[in-house]
Predict the structure.
Amino acid sequence: MDFGEGAELRALREAVAAIMKPYGGTYYTRRASAGTPTDEAWAALAESGFLGVNVPEAYGGGGGGIVELAAVCEEAAAAGCPLLLLLVSAAISGEVISRFGDDQQRRRWLPGLAAGSHKIVFAITEPDAGSNTHRLTTRATRDGSDWIITGQKYYISGFDEAAAVLVVARTDRDGDRRPADGAIPDRTRLSLFLVPTDAPGLVAHPLPVSAGLPEKQFTLFFDGVRVPADALVGEEGDGFRQVFHGLNPERVTGAALCVGIGRNALRRAAEYATARRVWDTPIGAHQGVSHPLAVARIEVELAGLMTQKAAWQHDNGVPAAEASNMAKYAAAEAAVGAVNQAIQTHGGNGMATEFGLVPLWGLARLLRIAPVSREMILNYVAQHSLGLPRSY
């Protein structure tokens, strides 16, 4: 067992850290406060080819996997500029299209993802479905060779920055059985569709959130959106398998983002605690300050190891659901704890805009809820890891 990273991965981390250094601190804080995209940071990574590290080389990418993409996510966040859309555009959409898309879809969408010329966001959540994908109501029905999509999606990140949205929709056939009470069946037929964001009938309404983030949230309305047959990704009705192939990478990269946030917050807290003197010694010399930071460092480091394990399992074809969920849980908890303690270490300055910690706390707190809540992860571990009875 080797816990050391190879020279190529270390070089990747160092390169990303150097590229992202100008985009931490003041840059990210201002973008988060204004709710404006981090376009320059995204472009800088694209110029060096790091946005497409997990895209096959045949389509302009680096030919790596989630191990490499997670490293990019972590190092960008550790530099102070966490890029939330890497989770949906590079991780989910990139992985799903690479694995299940046909050659035409790959040639149309993957080179742009790798080059950073466009983004593809992901639309699965709905107002009344929550975490229960069996209760999705957005529907795609055939009309000749086309598909007509009708429904609503909720909390869709970065729609305003995207060229397309990967939509999860029901494609139940007319003959599919329905329970007598009209409830949605346990085994819903889902399919995935690539829908251009400017498609007629697709309307996006901003969804205001209190957390200061560069990325905006949206509610999407599909009012009879017509897409051609080649918008369908893979086989009709194969959506569950496709979705979960994308959700594990999302959870791993979300965990990596959290690890990076934790690293950044703890570095800044340690620097402040070393320099800050209220009486004769730096405040970091007091165990009341140093011990909570040490605990936070341990938790971030442990989360990082679990994240690396989950990424390796995904890339090597080992079932990665358990590790991905555990990594996401551990990293989100660690990030919230690290940023919270960094704010406490700064005292009143922790709430000051110039120190830029509150936007990191908002994102870390969001990642404790999404893309999968801590409670649903605990349900998964209780049921699948411990063999306990299902609670829902």
